Amino acid sequence: xxxxxxxxxxxxxxxxxxxxxxxxxxxxxxxxxxxxxxxxxxxxxxxxxxxxxxxxxxxxxxxxxxxxxxxxxxxxxxxxxxxxxxxxxxxxxxxxxxxxxxxxxxxxxxxxxxxxxxxxxxxxxxxxxxxxxxxxxxxxxxxxxxxxxxxxxxxxxxxxxxxxxxxxxxxxxxxxxxxxxxxxxxxxxxxxxxxxxxxxxxxxxxxxxxxxxxxxxxxxxxxxxxxxxxxx
Length: 232
Ligand code: ADP
Ligand code: ADP
Hints:
Pfam families: ABC_tran. Keywords: ATP-binding, Nucleotide-binding, Transport. By secondary structure, the protein is an alpha/beta fold. Helices cover about 30% and strands about 30% of the residues. It has helices at about 45-55, 75-85, 100-110, 115-130, 145-160, 175-195; strands at about 5-15, 20-30, 35-40, 60-65, 70, 85-90, 165-170, 195-200, 210-215, 220-225. The strands form two sheets. The chain has a six-stranded mixed beta sheet, with helices on both faces. The chain has a four-stranded antiparallel beta sheet with strand order 2-1-4-5, with helices on one face.
């Protein structure tokens, strides 16, 4: 069975009198260990899709299952618990806390999970070393380059060792060298640790790493393409 299953999912935004269907009749299966790229132009519904897959929001209509559990009608506190256990987020704007240094930012999700502080600190240091920032533990975000901030965000997304990593425009605000580094890194997580990687983007660069490419346009899945990668 799929790890994530969207069945006839709709998302309707209400603006006063006006209703707008940002997602219409979306069916999508994502299997454990897949590298999925959700590709579409600006305004096609990518962020809406990411919010639903990431348990940040619920659909207006339809069913979303995660690990066979129907999550479509859960309340925020239950969604938050699922996010905390299962999903590592990499946001376009990084969402680092400006007053916390790299290490503190990375271990924040572990503090929410009430992980022992010494263990959290050790894991945070390891993760920052993995992303090549072992010498920047005490730098604030303002004391890092854009690419370095993105790497802190990646380290943070891995803190809880989530089975799913969900990245919103991971190459968005970065120079192409840093963007490629990030994609290579996610690809390594996918291959070595069998993580499920989901990238939501308008950029075609991530497509080369994908097992599955989901094209969305005007809130609908236009087509799904499968790639036979030479792995496994
Ligand atoms: P993308 O991420 O592909 O740019 P979004 O999911 O952000 O697309 O938006 C899809 C459509 O839904 C857009 O037309 C956008 O204007 C509309 N939309 C997104 N969020 C809201 C909201 N909170 N209220 C009303 N309309 C929204
Ligand atoms: P955008 O797609 O507009 O550039 P982001 O990539 O920063 O925005 O965030 C994508 C979506 O995730 C937005 O709808 C935002 O509200 C939500 N979001 C961003 N950061 C967090 C967070 N730390 N916790 C919960 N939701 C978040």
